[in-house]
Amino acid sequence: MAKNPAARSQKTARYHVLIRGVVQGVGFRPFVYNLARRWAIKGSVLNTPTGVIIDAEGEEKNITLFLKEIQENPPRLSKITFFQAHELPVRGYTSFQILSSETGAGKDALVPPDVATCTECREEIFDKNDRHYAYPFTNCTNCGPRFTIIREIPYDRPNTAMAPFSMCSECAGEYGNPGNRRFHAQPVACPGCGPQVEVRDRNGKIAAGKENWLQKCWEIIQKGNILALKGLGGFHLTCDARNKEAIAALRQRKGRDAKPFAVMCRDLETAEKYCLLDKREREILSSPQAPIVILRRKPDAELPEELAPGLNTLGVMLPYTPLHLLLFSGPFDLLVMTSGNYSGLPLVKDNARALNELGQIADYFLLHNRDIVNRCDDSLVRVIDGETHIIRRSRGYVPHPIPVLRQPGGPVILGAGGEMKNCFCLLKNDLAFMSQYIGEIDSVEGEENLFASLINFQRLIGAVPEIVAYDAHPGYASARVARLIPAREYLAVQHHHAHFASCMAENGMGNEEAIGVILDGTGYGPDGTLWGFEIIAGSYTKFRRVIHLAGVPLPGGEIAIRQPWRTAAAYLIHFLGARGKQAAESIFKDKNLDVLEKMIVKGFNSPLSSGCGRLFDAVAAILGVCLENTYEGQAAIELGELIREDRGSTASLAYPYEIKNGVIAPGTMIAGIIKDRLSGTPAEIISTRFHNTVAAMVIEAVETVSLNLNLKKVVLSGGTWQNHYLFRLVKKTLEKRGYRVLYHRRVPANDGGIALGQAMIAHWRWLKKCV
Amino acid sequence: MPGMKDKELVLLAHGDGGLLSRRLLEKHFLPCFSNEILSELSDASVFTVEGGRVAVSTDSFVIDPIFFPGGDIGKLAVYGTVNDLAVSGARPAYLTASFIIEEGFPLTDLDKIVLSMAEAARRAGVKIIAGDTKVVGRGQADKIFITTTGIGFLPPGVDLGYHRLEPGDRVIVNGSLGNHGLAVLLQRETFGIASQVESDCAPLNLIIEKLLQRFEGIKLMRDLTRGGLATNAKEIALASKADIWLEEQALPVDEAVKGVTEMLGLDPLYLANEGKFLVIVSAGEADTLLSFLKEEGRSGNASLIGEVKAGKGNVYLKTALGGARKLNLLAGAPLPRIC
Ligand SMILES: [Fe+3]
Ligand SMILES: [Mg+2]
Ligand SMILES: [Zn+2]
Ligand SMILES: [Zn+2]
């Protein structure tokens, strides 16, 4: 009993509080529990499928402070999206309790993403006296697996891949103690009760167990072998990042010619040894999301060229599980860490499949007996001017929703996504739940992966789509899969309209008119040709292609996208005629240009494309930078790598071009490039000028559209905007001229983002139909 | 008296049933196709059937160009129908041939075609026992169209069909794919590609007859004409509701065909063949059937290319890297999907 009469006179109140958002598996209940004790609140806290419910009784003033503290300083990993409190009659509770989770029909609680190992857990696994010493599955409420192990919500141990492991008394003690860091940490485990690792050779024979796995792994890597390692969201293939032969073997066995390999390095200091990092890059690298960050490689860094051929950058991530941390406690400070799959196929996540499907790539397998429920690739980001731009949004971010401007109560909408970097999106109320990276759909495995992931995701989000939106391309497998999802309405959405809408949605825009600059690869246009360089004007509900790049035939169709020299020759022949053919002959000496010319003239298997990606392909091939793409976007990326921002006035010049009747004619630019190329101008200068020209085209086109339609907001979307030089130049120039420039950060500018746009377009069209 | 020029070209009068028609028949067709039934020149040809099952197949041939490396429209008209009968399990015996000829068609070309048909019929062991000729005005037909109808006899006990497919059955093809379609395309489009690719146009009935005598485990056969291997496999899968798994690495494609199709951005699996067929055979007989094809059928490139599995009518192509791609019916040139 309080002795202070003033306090005694305080009114006792009781509040029922509902909190939604990422509030499960992030230490929310122990946080509430401790706070309740601090403010002498009685009652309970409960996890339900609709969110966390607090029943709080105490002095009015204390309750106010208690609730304020919850909203202002919630646990680091939590995110409150909804907070509602209403008063109830006083009950006279005598204690504050954490009640066990309740299962039920509503599913508004958010599933948390996976979290990189926290400092405390890291210390424990390297502390000989701690019972978690050297244990690769150590975690707590602040860190550990989440999305990748959850089968069903609410997020409780029996609904996760941890279900088969029953806690020992020590773990159970920590799990049940509200004062402990592991209080209600669902995946809590120790060497005595949790999952275990083992090493097997490619015949499935055990090579090491939990006692000696680490030494065995070091030995395997030291010998130049390739190790398949079961990680958090799937398998990695790893080898010594300094061993050229091992890297070459990995490339050859995986069927991956030149696509850069990501590396994992021991710690931030190691990363600084090889790469140039700014403050933001350091932060994001060591963030709980722990993505792969594209960093500028130090020019003098002693790293094999084979890691990222032709690039000045390196994709780097830090160890994000105890297993990785232990792996880096030995002789290696830098390991190749690439996804465990063959090019184009989904990431392998199960032991048996790994032994079966990766048996031709890996020499050894580091396996463990905790299932990966949801496949989740590493995320990929790049920092531009201090801002993080997500290129692949997956582990660490998914299934965290992206808030969008939308009235609650509308139908649940599925955006099925694209075909190559697929990611789908479930739009529920004002939250867009973007799926993990699904990748390529153009295989039986890819299609199955999309389907299975969609089913899982629907269950975890607790949303069944009523409207399904998909890409209008008649050949997309993702659209075929989408139409198999039961729904009451289906809507085909144009590829670049989806890109545009995706960027609008990410920036919280409503259904307003804006200018869209969509610079992309190839997407299906309503006129049956392939689009990809559009200045559009429109909103979610409608759009118009106002200015676009002239089309060029792609001789051979899809093969021209894999072989940029074809597109280069097509540009030369199509726009410059005999003069262009001659130039092509002098550049592509060993290629059969007569046949190509005939194909172009006859229109034989040569679909028209106006894609920006194809223009980049052509210029890269003309410069001899890249004649064949061995991975998507290779030519454009390598061309971008040539840019010299400090070359002064000659490089800052642009080539001539013409915009007439809404069409950007690149002929004079191509002629200029050829002239420079044949007169021996360095490729760096030509590339820089080319980029400047594209920027000039875009800016002039935007100014024209703005003048005619009186629009001042410019939305940038499409894969080409990942070119940071072009992005910076256009953004800076437009902003200087008074435009409001909207661009992607949290959602990829590439096809990984279009699902969001599809869903938002479907929403606004549905809404318009309703009024 | 017709002048020199008239002797060289087909005239409308060649089709009017009068003197010129008679002359066309006697001078250009009968000497080549002669056999005891046709020589009767009656309104209908009559032959005796010894009981048992009769198979009939008909096909019209309209091809541009009519002469191409490795064949011509005449040869195609004979083998096309002969092969349709053969893959159904029948022994082709008789053909009828009906010609629609465009006014102005050179008679020398007609002779070449008719001779080629006669030679094809001889090689296939069939008789052309009835025919018809019509001439249409310029532009109303493109040079020459030929329709052939074939009659064959099914040996007792032959039972082929979708109903017989079982999971585990093997899929065998008798040789390299895509040659005919590519040879015709290159002849028509003249890309200026110097290529050795010739049509594979050939009769299949002789080897098939031998196969059926030896291998009870043959479930189904199909000639891989229009739409190529992919479309035909898909049609089998759709009709049987089984899945067919093909191994990309096992598919026989000649280097020359590979090179040119890559250049043009085409898929040889969708190009027509005129002497290639699929055999679906029980797993137990697959290996011996394959060696028999290679030795007796002199089909060095015959290959075991896949397997039947329980499923839903899909065709899967297992790629070298372990993934699989679904094959669908031919549907025009596919638009690129890479963004
Ligand atoms: Fe795109
Ligand atoms: Mg037929
Ligand atoms: Zn922790
Ligand atoms: Zn334990």
From TrEMBL, chain A:
Pathway: Protein modification; [NiFe] hydrogenase maturation. Residues 14-100 form the Acylphosphatase-like domain. It is an enzyme of class 6 (ligase). Its EC number is 6.2.-.-. The keyword Zinc-finger applies. Pfam families: Acylphosphatase, HypF_C, HypF_C_2, Sua5_yciO_yrdC, zf-HYPF. GO terms for biological process: protein maturation. This is Carbamoyltransferase. It comes from Pelotomaculum thermopropionicum (strain DSM 13744 / JCM 10971 / SI). The gene is HypF.
Automatic annotation (TrEMBL), chain B:
It holds the Pfam family AIRS. Transmembrane segments: none annotated. Residues 166-314 form the PurM-like C-terminal domain. Gene3D superfamilies: PurM-like C-terminal domain (3.90.650.10), PurM-like, N-terminal domain (3.30.1330.10). Residues 42-153 form the PurM-like N-terminal domain. GO terms for biological process: protein maturation. Belongs to the HypE family. This is Hydrogenase maturation factor. It comes from Pelotomaculum thermopropionicum (strain DSM 13744 / JCM 10971 / SI). The lineage of its organism: Bacteria, Bacillati, Bacillota, Clostridia, Eubacteriales.
